[in-house]
Design a protein that fits this description.
Elements lengths: L1 H16 L4 H30 L3 H10 L3 H22 L6
C-alpha cells in the first residue's frame, strides 16, 4: 500500500513540475491509485499462490466451519478499507 501512496504522490509532483493542466493532473493521478492497487492485489494473489501465505489461515477457519474463511477475508479487507479511509482524513494539503 505504501507503494501506491508513493506512486500517487510522485505522479502528482512530477506532473506539477512539468506544468500539466490541472484537469489532466486530476485524471492521471486518479488513475495512478487504482493502477497501484491493482499491482498490489496482483502481487498479493501471486505470492499467495506461490508461497501459500493464507493457507494456514484458510485451513484454520475452514476447520471451524466450511466457507468461513471467505467471510473472514472480506472482514479483514473491510477493516483495511476503513483504516485507509481514516488515514486519508488526516492528509493535509500542502501549500
Amino acid at each position: 500500500m505504501q507503494g501506491t501512496l508513493w506512486l500517487v504522490r510522485a505522479s502528482g509532483v512530477w506532473l506539477t513540475q512539468r506544468g500539466v493542466a490541472m484537469g489532466v493532473q486530476v485524471a492521471l493521478v486518479g488513475l495512478a491509485g487504482p493502477v497501484g492497487i491493482a499491482g498490489a492485489v496482483f502481487a498479493g494473489v501471486y505470492l499467495e499462490a506461490w508461497m501459500g501465505i493464507g493457507g494456514p489461515m484458510a485451513d484454520f477457519f475452514n476447520a471451524l466451519r466450511p466457507g468461513l474463511v471467505y467471510l473472514v477475508i472480506f472482514a479483514v479487507y473491510g477493516a483495511l478499507f476503513l483504516l485507509s479511509t481514516a488515514s486519508l482524513a488526516r492528509v493535509r494539503q500542502s501549500g
